Amino acid sequence: MGETNRSGGDASQVQSVDRALSVLDLLAKHGELGVTELAAELDVHKSTAFRLVTALDRRDLVQQIGDRGKYRLGLGILRLAAATTGRLEVSHEGREVCERLANELGETVNIAIMEDDAAVNVLQEYGNASVMTRNWIGRRTPLYATSSGKVLLAFADETARKAVLESTLEPLTDNTTTDPQQLLRELDEVARRGWACTSEELEIGLTALAAPIRDGGGRVAAAVSASGPSFRLTPDSFEEVAEKLVAGAAEISSRLGYYGA
Known about the structure:
Layout: H1 2-30, E1 33-34, H2 35-42, H3 46-58, E2 62-65, E3 70-73, H4 76-105, E4 108-115, E5 118-125, E6 140-142, H5 147-154, H6 158-165, H7 180-193, E7 196-199, E8 206-214, E9 220-229, H8 238-255
Antiparallel strand pairs: 1-3, 2-3, 4-5, 4-9, 5-6, 7-8, 8-9
């Protein structure tokens, strides 16, 4: 009996979510609508339509227009859209630069953004010397074990850094940094010199370097990285590779509206 009730409750919640999304679609289509009009469009009682817009209003996803009883999309929609827009913008503006970097370095070049406690790759280009053709797009990787992640973490706010430093840093290889104090020292060094490197911390045989990409407001919004086999990306090559990545990151940043301090 309890299981049946839970299933019924889940179905009701899904229906409510679907109706709430329908409200947003209707307001996007018509611009503004009243509760009576929304109820008619959704084929629900006015009280149901009122509960839906009230819930959406609490999240700033809709807003009431003065005392006219009409509703329109709220500013909360912009907050949600900004996350996707930023991801699409950095991918669009970075593609040409990443293609060039991949050709110059001969390695796989990625752009990653921070998503909660992970680095997520949103763009990838292969170099002509790449021996690994794995698709990293959309893959979540630990911030503490990747070059992009360390860049994003080094320039993140104190809350994000603290959350990672106080979490359990699982060893992915024998080279993974699992000591919080050592990681903190590494992050400080990344912030000082402007780029990060990891050698076989995520996977044995894989080395990567990354540099920060800033948005129009100067915030580090993404990281561009080059990764390849450890026998080719050796410490002797780090300075040269890092120099190219930093220059590429600066170019992408300028395309996003950042022109330096």
